[in-house]
Design a protein that fits this description.
Blueprint: E1 2-4, H1 6-14, E2 19-24, H2 29-44, E3 51-54, H3 59-64, E4 72-77, E5 80-85, H4 91-101
Parallel strand pairs: 1-3, 2-3
Antiparallel strand pairs: 2-4, 4-5
Helix pairs in contact: 2-4
């Protein structure tokens, strides 16, 4: 998982970035558990690194992208939001999400 600042993320999105963003807060216990599950998924699957954003440092980004709560997984394709979820039930569910979410361009 790669930590990104809101400025770095904005630049990537402007350049047409495709990938997963994990939005979390360092004060959120559920976020810490979700991050552990994501690290397991990254080790099991051959996926590109997930970008991680501290939402506490990006309130305007959260508002403009309608991030309702954390933890959140957001898939961007060509710089456009395609899929978003707030469910982190299990490692298996996250594996499925990362595989299927990249195929579902109308996930919202």
């Amino acid at each position: 998982m790669n930590d990104v600042t809101v400025e770095q993320l904005a630049s990537q999105l402007q350049d047409g970035w495709t990938g997963w963003l994990y939005a979390s807060s360092p004060f959120c216990g559920t976020c810490q558990l979700a991050e552990q599950m994501l690290q397991i998924v990254e080790q099991l699957e051959d996926i590109e690194a997930i970008s991680k954003l501290n939402i506490q440092l990006a309130p305007q980004f959260a508002q403009s992208n309608q991030i309702e709560s954390v933890p959140a997984m957001i898939y961007y394709k060509d710089g456009r939001l395609q899929n978003r979820t707030y469910r982190f039930d299990s490692v298996v569910d996250l594996q499925r999400l990362l595989k299927e979410g990249t195929r579902d361009v109308n996930g919202l």
